[in-house]
Design the sequence.
């Protein structure tokens, strides 16, 4: 049995539909009985539901009863995720989420040993961008002893959900982490911009705090990891000037007010994002090399792919007889070649130098 927590949100609903398509046994969970009831009535298998609130820890234990896998979509994870991970690792229940909040993922090291002792895995960031790049990076490392690596995300037409917006604000506020010269250090986010070459032309990008800053060094002996996100030409210029101040501002009382204002805004994002293209560049260099090599991933529909990836990982973790333990990255669970094939069937293309 799978328990899908945060099922009533934008991503949760998409994952529920994916679990239905795959015919996997699951139940839904969230903080509102009415919204869960309503969601269940629209899903073909009419899944059972559980009411649990991430901010009321006494309501959480039932999430971990009679379940092999907890899929968590209740974000921002910086505020709502840690107790859920802690309980999963204590209960020995496999855990998967859709975060890309670097500070949150970094803190999960604390639960690595507990998860190993209780024979379960903790898999944060099993969402479109991190999962795709993580599996591609695993393939690169099979061939090259990479020391320097960068990842650039280009998602030009994506309407981001409110949940993503709130997570980005929390990440900007709390994820002040970089990885340089073989160690993690404190870095104010978004302080640099650069240009990168995509199939549609050159684009400006700013440096962002993204999960790879933790997950790549967690797995491989690298020296430097940088993650970038494309922005307009104007933001390429103003971003590194303004965003580090904005990140500092978000740590003040006034920042809490901005966050509450964003959280209270009603906004709807089109359910179908299948026509929104994306391109991911991965640059890598071995110790002695001067020139960068590149891998490239292209596809469409970032949110729909997040649901496909979570559904595939859920299928894999229920069917597989031998599962990893402890804090892992997507490529530890998902075998690269099978994953590439699965993603290829969803229109995702991978190319390697
Ligand atoms: N990395 C990626 O590519 C990627 C892709 C998709 C999503 N995400 C992340 O996934 C998360 C969800 O995104 P979304 O777009 O689905 O956001 P959303 O539509 O705002 O959904 C948030 C979900 O969390 C639930 N929730 C909020 N507070 C809760 C609490 N105290 N206890 C239990 N549940 C609570 C909400 O319940 P209600 O319905 O009751 O409000 C809702 O189900 C975000 O953090 C986002 O950044 C990442």
Sequence:
């Amino acid at each position: 049995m799978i328990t899908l927590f945060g099922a009533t949100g934008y991503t949760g609903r998409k994952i529920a539909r994916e679990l239905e398509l795959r015919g996997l046994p699951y139940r839904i969970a969230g903080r509102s009985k009415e919204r869960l009831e309503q969601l269940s009535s629209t899903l073909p298998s009419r899944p059972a539901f559980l009411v649990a609130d991430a901010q009321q820890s006494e309501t959480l234990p039932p999430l971990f009863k009679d379940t092999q896998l907890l899929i968590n979509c209740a974000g921002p994870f910086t505020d709502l995720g840690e107790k859920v991970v802690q309980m999963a690792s204590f209960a020995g229940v496999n855990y998967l989420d859709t975060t890309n909040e670097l500070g949150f993922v970094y803190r999960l090291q604390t639960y690595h040993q507990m998860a190993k002792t209780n024979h379960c895995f903790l898999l944060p960031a099993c969402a479109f961008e991190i999962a795709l790049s993580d599996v591609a990076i695993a393939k690169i490392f099979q061939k090259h002893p990479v020391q320097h690596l960068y990842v650039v995300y280009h998602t030009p037409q994506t309407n981001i959900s409110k949940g993503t917006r709130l997570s980005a604000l929390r990440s900007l506020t709390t994820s002040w982490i970089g990885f340089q010269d073989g160690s993690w250090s404190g870095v104010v986010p978004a302080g640099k911009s650069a240009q990168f070459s995509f199939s549609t032309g050159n684009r400006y990008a700013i440096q962002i705090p993204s999960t790879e800053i933790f997950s790549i060094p967690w797995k491989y002996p690298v020296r430097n990891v940088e993650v970038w996100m494309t922005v307009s030409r104007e933001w390429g210029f103003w971003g590194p000037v303004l965003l580090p101040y904005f990140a500092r501002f978000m740590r003040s009382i006034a920042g809490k007010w901005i966050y509450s204002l964003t959280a209270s805004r009603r906004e709807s994002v089109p359910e179908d994002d299948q026509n929104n293209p994306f391109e991911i560049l991965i640059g890598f260099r071995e110790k002695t090399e001067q020139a960068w090599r590149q891998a490239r991933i292209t596809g469409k529909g970032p949110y729909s792919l997040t649901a496909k990836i979570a559904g595939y990982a859920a299928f894999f973790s229920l069917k597989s007889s031998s599962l990893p333990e402890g804090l892992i990255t997507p490529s530890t669970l998902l075998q690269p070649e099978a994953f590439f094939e699965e993603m290829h069937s969803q229109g995702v293309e991978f190319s390697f130098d």
Q: What stands out?
A: The longest strand covers residues 277-286. Residues 69 and 94 are 5 Å apart (CA to CA). The pocket of NAP is lined by residues 6, 8-12, 30-32, 35, 53-55, 73-77, 80, 98-100, 127-129, 161-164, 167, 303, 306 (CB under 6 Å). The radius of gyration is 19 Å.
